[in-house]
Amino acid sequence: MKKNNPIIAIVFWSLVSFLTLFPIYWLFVISVKPAVQLFSTPDVILSDPYWGNYAKVWGDRLLRSYMVNSLVISTGNALLCTILGFFACYALSRFKMAGKESLFFWTITNRMAPPAVFLLPLFLLMTQVYAVGDFRLLDTRIGMILVYCTFNLPFAIWTLRPTLDGIPKELDEAAYVDGASSWKVITEIVFPLCRPGLAVTLILTWVFAWNEYLLAATLTNFNARTLTTGLSEYVTTTGTEWGIMATISVFTLIPALIVFGLVQKHIVAGLTFGAVKG
Amino acid sequence: MQSNRLGWILLAPTLAILFFFGVLPFIYVVYVSFHQWNPFAADPTMIFNGADNFRKIVFDAEFLNSVGVTVLFVLFAVISELVVGYILAQAFMKEFPGKAIFRTIHTLPLIMAPIIVGSVWKLMMTPSIGIIPHYLNEWFGITVNIGTSPVAAFATIIIMDIWHWTPLVTLTLIAALVSLPPDPFEQAQIDGANKRQIFFHITVPMIAPAVVATVFIRLMDALRTVDEVWMLTGGGPGSATRFVGVHIFKEVFPKTNYGYGSTISVIVLYLTIVACWLLYVTMLAPRSKKD
Amino acid sequence: MSNHDNTPLSSAHHEEEDTPAVSSPKAGFLPIETNWFDRLFISVVIWVALSLLWFRFIEPMGLSIWISNAIALALAVLIISKG
Amino acid sequence: MAQVKIDNVIKRYGSLQVMHGVNVDINDGEFVVLVGPSGCGKSTLLRMLAGLEEISDGTISIGERVVNDVPPKERDIAMVFQSYALYPHKTVYDNIGFPLKMAKRPQDEIDRKVTGAADILDLTKYLKRYPKELSGGQRQRVAMGRAIVRDPQVFLFDEPLSNLDAKLRVTMRVEIKELHQRLGTTIVYVTHDQIEAMTMADKIVVMRDGRVEQIGAPLDLYDNPANIFVAGFIGSPSMNFVHGQIVNEGGVRQFRSDNGLMLPLPDTSAPDGTKVTYGIRPEHITIADHGVPLRVVVVEPTGSETQVFAKHGTDFIDAMVKDRFKAAPNSEVRFAIDPANVHLFDRETEQRL
Amino acid sequence: MNTVFKLAASALALSFAAGMANADDAFWKEAAAPYQGVTLRGVTESSPPSLYIREVLAPQFEELTGIRVDIETTSWDQMFDKAIKDMEAGTGIYDMVYIEQDIVYSYLARDFLTDTTQLLADNPALKAPTYDEGNFTTFADYFRGENGHLYGIPMEAFIKIYLYRTDLFEDPEIQASFKEKTGRDLAPATTHAEYTEIAKFFYEYGQENDLQLWGATVQGHTGHPASWYEYVETVAPTFGIYNWGIDADNNYAATVANGGEMNSDTAKEALQWWLDLRQYAAPESNQSTWTEVGTTFGAGRAAQGLVYGENAGWIAADDTKSLVVGKVGVALPPLADGVMAEVEGGEGYIGYYDGGAFGLPSTSKNKEAAALFLEYIGQNEVQPDWAVAAPRVTNTATYDDPKVQDMNEELGGYYDMLRDKGYLFAGAPAYPFHAQLREAMAPTFYSILTGDSSVSDGLDKMAEIAEATLTELGYRK
């Protein structure tokens, strides 16, 4: 009906984008400033960038192994949560199980737990209960993948439920009539149809896992430390190495940026929290 | 047809993981919450003390204050995120050049780790040296000091949270708006509703499920906010930004007050679950049940 | 409208399809549909809330927490059986 | 109540023109049906009338007023959508009362009008229900109720029956027609179903590709279609068309198809050799011994009538006969055609000769 | 010290150590023989001395003995949490834990640590010829148990000192202007009043000349315990309030009413003096922890300040981080009348002797191998390079090394002060409840800093909270 003026939209969005980008830009500025310049009058415009921090971070073998751990843990966790969440939502949306709405709600509550106090029981469980012989879950990638499920699996279920509910049951039935097994119905009919929802769930759980700090800091020691815990090594009583921290931060942003960019177009299609039906 | 057994099989791994990594620790926390336990007390063992921790908590001014500021924070942050997110989502419903790029830019903060967000904002907000206080002072003569002004610190955290999490709200609202059928809106135009009336009578009720679902996620996450605040203000100035997450953190980390810390967590979890449950049964469940 | 008679249109009584059944009104006194687990949860919520309020306002006056527990238990029985 | 005048209306989407100067005059109290195949622009025209689409050029007036720039709510119209567009979160009562509430009418008036409309539409029992708790027909009537209470100058219906089953569609057709008679309001009704158009309309507007092909009373269109399109569109089963030319064989002017089928020719001024399309409606063909010989393809008895499909080469002709008729496939049948019922069209322009 | 510098230094040290390869090598190889295949794990704060262990000493040790050493470096609060959880739960993850001087009492109270003296006595094969407890400075005494045995091998030690800008203090124009304004010569303050006067002078000087310069540093974060530490460790002792104003021998009394000093008039005067200083301090001081105080001073934004010794090193010498290299002088903190006499007399202290040690948790599964590594880092031989890379001194012999002497020059005589005046400083009081008590009082302390509560009311309340908390913890009867 109304003609919208693209100029206004562009000006508006440029402003919003400026506000959005500025802290990220500033992160970058900090990463290319020598430490000696950080605590003096700030300049908005970047001049004479200093790449020493990048050289240091890139050359740090520990950080490289943290990067690998981060990738393995967040990818493993995102896949696990998305697949298990998909199965769970399929069950919740297709079966008439007693009390399934309560079950749905109570799975979500796992995300509400304030993390700090759960660290102690998790530590005890992972060192003393979930241990076989010399192997214990603490400080392992698989352990972190499982621990991250406590907040990501509820999220996956929450995001995927409307997607599953939105796929007509008739499709399953048609496939059964055509002779498919339950497994085939799930994997070949329903799963592909959920792709946008699955993509969004995958990316968001991945980002949540990638960015998690507190659990990783406490429940890993040597073998499974992640990039975010690497950050904490530069906050010390003898000076916080902001430049290095910012550089690591920039490094943590890049994979997230790539993953996010890949599924951009699915995001809106897949985020169907409480979608309205007719 | 399919038997319920398959349903339970599909749910089993989820329930197992949540049981072993969510429910068991929770049971342990509840167990500890009835004990006095500080490994650095004169008696470092776990001593059962009945409901004494709960007796203490209802008079604990620090805790009650932290609940208060948390509620205030969550209200401010989530409502602002909804309003800003809705405005931006609506703005995205129109076509304009470069829309895809702007949308990508707008979602960027989402991918940043809270601890990084806290660090960047700390550097930007450091009194006198940070770029924001510096130029606010230089250009407008406004002095902003998050070290002395509770309002400035609180506002900074809210702005930071809006900056960080509005994109999630925007995206879910765009998804909700895109999936709305156009007919009721045209019908409402013909029925004589003006813009405001359409918004309140048609748009709001029709995107309400998406809004509530988004609020739900944001509420849960905002209540757990620790990393950003820890980096930015450490809970200060005074106790102005000592949110429950930060409060619990201080109770169990430096103070190693495992017993009472567990009690606080149990109460916080209790309050969170009750709030979310009310939201869920009143706003979300009825719709999903009837469909 | 007032100038038209309000008798149903001649064809309106040709009821064609089945009108879908509306969910039956719930049985209990709670304002929402519940199963036993929900009601147990509600009882626990009330018990905790009551206990906390009791600790804060009533126990200092000398009334034991067990009174609160008894009330909560009674409420729980009522809610779980009748809710 | 008012007359509606659509004057040389053009619609463009960017550089794409989809409506090419449409003119329609609708009289006060008239039931006008816009009909045409999907994509012909009939819904767009209706939405322009409603104010939901912008008018690129030309004018639309309702009553005395040009409404080009008048927002929908001020046009004093009511509209029933194909999807019914019920508000899913409002009860039947609130759905019907919504326009009145928007107009800030007093509660007692809303109450009176809503119950009145509910009475008429037999919805009284369902006022407290939500749309999803109603059957398709009931939802449809709620949508109509919402239109009725506004007491508008013009009712707009956008394919309101297309989501209903066949039997219900017949019932609702009667209902809408009855409603029109009772209220006497101008109605503009869009459908792709020519039977709806024929049975309900005072006046039919046949559209194709953003143009009006013909305007007229139902039987006018049936008897005197202006072109092949209208002829083929109006009437069921649709008209037979055979391509050929006028020949004069031994002083008898006849029609000879490209396959050599000879058919009787009505009076026409067209000269011999003119290439024409020959149109004859199935219901105007009888079976008689003196008719044109053809081979039977299929015979379809419907009880009251029998439809006979027959061919000659690649020319197919079907007939709708009153009598019971039996014939084996590929046997010979003779179709008698009264030249008075034959329509001739120019093969190039497709216009009626 | 930035990483590049450190790594360069470490490469140097490695080659140096290799060149020095001496008779002791035989001992290490032999002693380590039974422990081949063992991996030692340690947790520490990622401070420069610890990073030196991770990057230099651990690889050296591995090369020498074949025992792998993994050092986890993390933030201060994470380190404590992880070490405590491990030792509390008895998981045996760590073979070495960092012990900050103030937490050693907590660890000893819980028997978390292994008696290294005893361990070496019991296993003579482990005793390295180059290792001797007598090599350590008196700082090691903080890590001795009641039996006088050593429970941690010192690895870093600093004093919190008074740093001032020599370029400003020695500028004749500034000196003249100061004299004109105050009637006395500009020199590092010896009393609190002088300190404030100098702060005020430089604050005004900065304002008048439109400089990014303020009068003093204040470690006054309004939401971080650093501010509490500056008050109790640095400011209060100079007024004669020791050990947080709590009398450990008198049933841990804190309030004046019960015989404590936490809310005494002197304590209030001390806090008030410190708070008043903030008006002359850089604006970021209310967000400053020990880190930012160093950065503020290093950025040349303060004329003087009380700065942790571990920061003095890079402020004075590292030009990649500091703008005031070569312009830093050190002095003793300003004192109230009579305090020096008291301290010389053996009662109290004038500032914080800070540092940490590496301890061997009782729960370790590789005690013997860990003891070898602890001996290794305790040798005199490894100290000088370490002291240069990360300014800290734990062995008396280190002071005399030429490299350390050069460093001393660069640091404006900091090492001399550490050696000669170190006895005036003291570690944190021997309480097993530091963090517990601090966190209990912190909210009130922060409310004093924000002005929500007055100094007098706040300290009164803090003293009460302290007693209540100690009662709850079971220390105060």
UniProtKB/TrEMBL annotation, chain A:
SUPFAM superfamilies: MetI-like. GO terms for biological process: transmembrane transport. The keyword Transport applies. It comes from the Bacteria. The chain crosses the membrane at residues 7-28, 71-92, 112-130, 142-160, 189-209, 242-263. It is found in: Cell membrane. Keywords: Cell membrane, Membrane, Transmembrane, Transmembrane helix, Transport. This is Carbohydrate ABC transporter permease.
